Write the structure tokens for this entry.
Amino acid sequence: MPAYRPTANCIWRSFRASSKKHLILTGSRGSGKSTLLSALFPQPMPGLTSYVVPEDGVYMKENLSGETVQIGRYQADAPGNTNKMQPVPEAFLTKGIEFLDMCIRHPSDWVTIDETGYLEQTIPAYQEAISRLLAAKHVLLVVRKQKLPFLDSLCKRDDCFLVDLDKPYGDAFCIIMASGKSKRFGANKLLTDFNGKPLIAYAFDATEMLGQNRLVVTIHPEIAHICKKQDIPFLLHNLPDRNDMIRLGTGAIKDKASHCLFLPSDQPLVSRETIGALLFCAKNAPDTIWRTCDQNTAGSPVVFPSAYFDDLSALPPKNGGNTVIQNHREHVRLLPVTQHYELADICRQWRLLQRMHWQSKYTSHRSQILLRSICFLYLLQLPLCFWKHLTQIKPHFLHLKERIPLTVHLFPVPSIQPVMVLL
């Protein structure tokens, strides 16, 4: 089992982005399927719930009426390796199908079934009733982890979003891109303290669920040292350009990965939940390039299927993955972030301050007021940690601060009355 279990919100976000009709949860016993179902639908839903009474049988309950029927009978004297829990066909053919028909007639869009397993395998008429239900409703279906034709057919349906809690992200890898030279920053920003720990540590935390299926590609020996201490795979190189970093990283993982998430290491606020949701999307749409977005503005991180690894390895000098994205726009889909600042990198916030300073030299007094108001309102949306550590994310900021003292004033700007303006 993975140390990090996907949250209900993570799964729901990825399911919604997939545009698929049904959601299937599977996994071994104790993997948390029923717990997750309850988190996804806390209120009683129309549907069926099965439960076991040890050395007695399996019972099926219709959720809303509470009516119950025994669908499996324990047979202690079953010969050899025969499963001691045997189906009760007449229960499936009468009450089981009746319960499913009740769900179809219910006005709710969604129905839950917890769980479907080997007992249903030998009852074709009940299987057909489940197919009718899938045609009529959205179904959240818990499926027993077992290699049986009926269960396999459910999990492989094109309209089903599958979450396997034993291996939720499949054979996904992540390349953490840590080869920037931080020229505009003035120092190695990845080592800069940000809310109590180095900036690079946030990328490690956000991808923790992938364990050893990560690779930090870096030109900085200090970053390699941190990776070694934390047992995170790394690739230390001395090549100059972005395409070099991508080629080296892709070459190192291409024989092991079904798809790869590329994460810039200077986005400290991208959440673990967003990373997980991207990986779920990629696993359920294996031919699609998935990337994050804020409304209609796309950003990073991005997940590429293995079909694009050769293109990524052959990028022109100084080019990045966006070249591949532009060449295959029809295969790109977007996952919205829950907070817009997840897509913000440290450099982008600094450039905003720079531009505000530059504009103040050349614009009229009225335009300056409006510009500064807009900048302040944008920055106001950032979490407190950005403000708290603003002087740490740029060593030259103190020099700027001497030239432009930071004070707060009130200006009567049209449509923003009054507004605090950063000077």
About this structure: DSSP finds 15 helices and 19 strands in the chain. The first helix runs from residue 8 to 18.
